[in-house]
Design brief:
Blueprint (H helix, E strand, L loop, with lengths): L1 E2 L13 E2 L30 H5 L2 H15 L9 H6 L37 H25 L4 H8 L23 E6 L2 E6 L23 H4 L17 H25 L3 H5 L9 H12 L15 H19 L8 E3 L10 E3 L43 H16 L29 E11 L7 E7 L2 E8 L5 H5 L5 E7 L12 H11 E7 L14 E10 L9 E7 L6
Length: 573
């Protein structure tokens, strides 16, 4: 299959980008191999979007390459539309991989499902070749554009270019300006110019899209828009300022704590990878970001999220966090587990494991589907992250210490539950009844378990202590009838620290904490499309308050150790 030549807004004619015929073979996802040093192990990094913006040659190439992708015919296999649509709509086969198990049929009990895996242990590994695919196509365009500069600087920039990430959990948390500008200034072969900013939105080329792609009787609001929206009002105008305020301004600390707790408390893959587990996972805060950015726009429902350009920066960050976690827990891995939900190619309520095909993605031979085994390590795809430069460290332990230090610097800058020098001691006081007051503290948390079918559509559970929000659990969508008929009973879990809601309360005084929480802990359930839900009519929503005895970290190269856990049902009763 040939991608036709396209012209960027700069008038640069791009040569045809050749792919393997999808009828004869599948599209081989190899990742980008330019810039890799096989002798040293060096792999070019995916960079923070703010750092990439300050690198004029790489940023200029990236912007032009993304514009070229977005101007490619939407019927083309490697157009931005087709790649974005792998995640959900338009619910069409990609690369000839048909939905042989779960047909994407509409029904009154939920939006159809595409290829993407959510709410199960394959969540991190499925998105890894997905990101490698868009990176590979983007880099192909960047290579062709770089040659028009006739400059070794731009050729080197292209060789080392990878997709960027947006770190939404590091302090200060904010939505970068470069993602909001309608146009952006870059250096082109003919000088400095302002061009359309492809990071701001995707303009649907076939608007209005064909009825078979965006049916008028399903999700009509988003399917009828000429471009992607973020936090839109009733007039379909995006208000991206709302992403920062009240969004990240209110919930930034929750995101940071949630990410840190995955590193510090989740040492097995099952807990770290998915909200189907009962612990701390990266999938949890990931869902909140979808909602903060989207509001009633395209990033909120999984069926449209892949069309917003920020989707790929967001998921590159999730992939980065998982890569850091893998460096800390290198032996933790996928164990067989039941996926309550399903996809086009995974039947609901069945077992998935490391060998489950990550459809529709195919390895470099053009034949073999990716599995979690082949997608386990980022080095297989030719990229790295600045936080995990594994080739620089002689042993896994040395890498562990370095990455742990980086996690503490980024997501625990106040040194909570840490006693290392030049760090603030935890505001959580030591436990007096224990023998060694200097080495133990009591930490309080609240856990939420919400059936995905709780209200019949996507919803968010918000938890407060007084006026302080301490947790937010976002559920994308309700189960389909197909899932229900298969016996699937998805439940989404979240766990949140309560230290922000216990300011001025002695955390060691159990009676005082229980009294404070009985009087001040509350929660709301709000439909993602709007509408507060009456709590009295809900069945299955579970809230648990508990404390844990913690041994604080003695070094910035360590995490605190969480020990004995005690539930406090009296808070709720």
């Amino acid at each position: 299959m040939l991608i036709p030549s396209v012209s960027t807004s700069l008038g640069i004619a791009l040569a045809a980008f050749t792919c393997i015929d999808s009828v004869a073979a599948k599209f081989p996802i190899t990742g980008v191999k330019t810039g890799v040093n096989p002798k040293t192990g060096y792999r070019p990094p995916r960079r923070n979007i703010n750092d990439l913006y300050n690198d004029k040659p790489q940023f200029s190439l990236y912007i032009q390459a993304m514009n070229a992708m977005m101007q490619t015919d939407e019927n083309n296999l490697t157009s931005f539309f087709q790649i974005g649509g792998i995640h959900g709509r338009p619910f069409i086969s990609w690369d000839g991989v048909d939905p042989k198990i779960m047909a994407p049929l509409p029904n009154a009990d939920g939006i159809p499902i595409g290829y993407c895996t959510h709410g199960n242990t394959l969540f991190p590994t499925w998105h890894r070749p997905y990101l490698a695919l868009i990176e590979q196509v983007m880099a192909g365009f960047a290579q062709k554009i770089a040659k028009t500069y006739n400059s070794p600087v731009y050729q080197t920039a292209a060789d080392n270019l990878r997709i960027p990430y947006w770190d939404w959990a590091a302090v200060p948390q904010y939505f970068p300006d470069v993602l909001m500008w309608p146009s952006v200034q870059i250096s082109t072969p003919t000088g400095v110019k302002n061009v359309t900013n492809p990071l701001n939105r995707y303009k649907f080329l076939n608007h209005p899209e064909p009825e078979k792609w965006f049916p008028s009787n399903e999700e009509t609001y988003l399917g009828s828009q000429p471009w992607t929206l973020r936090q839109p009002d009733s007039q379909n105008v995006s208000h991206e300022n709302l992403i920062n305020n009240p969004g990240l301004s209110d919930d930034g600390p929750i995101l940071t704590d949630a990410v840190y707790n995955v590193f510090a408390k989740s040492s097995d893959w099952w807990n770290a990878s998915t909200t189907a587990s009962g612990g701390n996972s990266f999938e949890g805060p990931h869902g909140s970001i979808h909602f903060f950015v989207g509001g009633n726009g395209h990033m909120s429902p999984a069926s449209f999220a892949g069309f917003d350009p920020v989707f790929f920066l967001h998921h590159a960050n999730v992939d980065r966090l998982m890569d850091m976690w893998q460096a800390i827990y290198p032996n933790a891995w996928i164990q067989p587990s039941t996926t309550q939900g399903g996809t086009w190619t995974i039947y609901p309520n069945t077992i998935v494991d490391e060998n489950t095909p990550l459809t529709p993605f195919t390895t470099g031979d053009g034949k073999t589907p990716y599995t979690s085994v082949s997608a386990r390590h980022v080095k297989s795809f030719g990229y790295s992250y600045p936080d995990v430069q594994d080739w620089l460290f002689p042993t896994p332990q040395a890498l562990f210490k370095n990455v742990t230090t980086r996690v503490n610097q980024l997501y625990n800058s106040k040194g909570l539950l840490g006693t290392w020098p030049n760090k603030k001691r935890s505001s959580i006081r030591s436990v007096p009844e224990l023998e060694n007051r200097a080495t133990t503290v009591r930490s309080w948390s609240v856990a939420v378990a919400a059936p995905n079918a709780l209200v019949g559509e996507g919803f968010t559970v918000s938890l407060f202590v007084g006026s302080t929000r301490v947790g937010r659990l976002t559920v994308f969508e309700a189960p389909t009838q197909f899932e229900k008929d298969a016996g699937g009973k998805r439940v989404t879990h979240g766990e949140y620290t309560l230290h922000a809601g216990l300011d001025g309360v002695d955390s060691n005084d159990i009676a005082s904490v229980v009294k404070h929480l009985k009087e001040n802990l509350k929660w709301t359930v709000v439909k993602n499309k709007g509408g507060v839900v009456d709590l009295s009519g809900l069945e299955g929503l579970s809230i648990e308050v508990f404390d844990e005895i913690v041994t604080p970290a003695q070094s910035i190269e360590e995490f605190p150790v969480f020990g004995q856990k005690t539930s406090h049902p009296e808070v709720l009763g």
